[in-house]
Amino acid sequence: EVQLVESGGGSVQPGGSLRLSCAASGFTFSDHWMHWVRLVPGKGPVWVSRINIDGSTTDYADSVKGRFTISRDNAKNTLFLQMNSLRAEDTAVYYCARGGMRYCSGTSCYWGDYWGQGTLVTVSS
Amino acid sequence: EIVLTQSPGTLSLSPGERATLSCMASQSVSRMYLAWFQQKRGQAPRLLIYGASSRATGIPDRFSGSGSGTDFTLTISRLEPEDFAVYYCQQYDKSPLTFGGGTKVEIK
Which among A19, A122, B70, B97 is placed 20 to 30 Å from B20, CA to CA? Predict the structure, then answer.
């Protein structure tokens, strides 16, 4: 059974840092891209970042570029999101989601078929 | 960035009725990279459709997707009680990946 379990959320003051983790199991982690998405209650999902299978390619939403860093440890089947210079508008539930598979092409390169349960990040003074 | 505009904002229907949800993109999106998600309160989004028209694993065939270019549609042929939720279109053709603003399907 595919499982994604996030951790590391919490309350932090503006300007602070947090490191989120996403532990993956039930599939070959190193064969999949991975994503972070955030949700503010009552608002729509916002894509945050993605990383390719070996960590050599990363991509970010403009709103977090330069402040957030996505990384992965394939030996430990874990995805990370280092969040620095946090702002009030970063307050959300953060989810990791599974991405496209190695060697996928075209339509088969979908993402978001599995999500974690989310971890809440609150940025407030 | 590609902006996705969904309409209507809210759809009030009864169980058994047909729901038609629209998603319009600010620029052409490859149909290979257009998805639809369902979200219920307090839950992670659930992938329904990818590649504009392919159903994800376990998704009932009352859900169907169509469209190309800048106009895409999600159709729910006969609404079941568990289908009342918010639906988002999403493009993964160009970075940054973007979601539409959502259509809420509510019980009339």
Answer: B97
Reported as a single tens digit per residue, the pLDDT across A72-101 is: 999 999 999 999 999 999 999 999 999 999
Q: Which chain A residues are within 8 Å of B102, Cβ to Cβ?
A: 44
Residues B70 and B24: beta-carbon distance below 8 Å: yes
Residue A82 has which token pair? 């280092």
Summarize pLDDT for B42-86 with one digit per residue, the tens. Answer: 899 999 999 999 999 999 999 999 999 999 999 999 999 999 999
What is the least distance, in Å, from the CA of B79 to any CA of chain A? 22
Cα(B34)–Cα(B49) distance, integer angstroms: 8
List for chain B the helix, strand, coil content (%; round to 5). Answer: 5, 55, 40
| CB spacing of A115 vs B88 below 8 angstroms | no
Whether residue A42 is predicted with pLDDT greater than 90 in this model: the reply is no
B103-107 and B10-13: which strand pairing? parallel
Beta bridge partners of A5: A23
| Residue A108 backbone dihedrals phi, psi, to 5 degrees | -75, -5
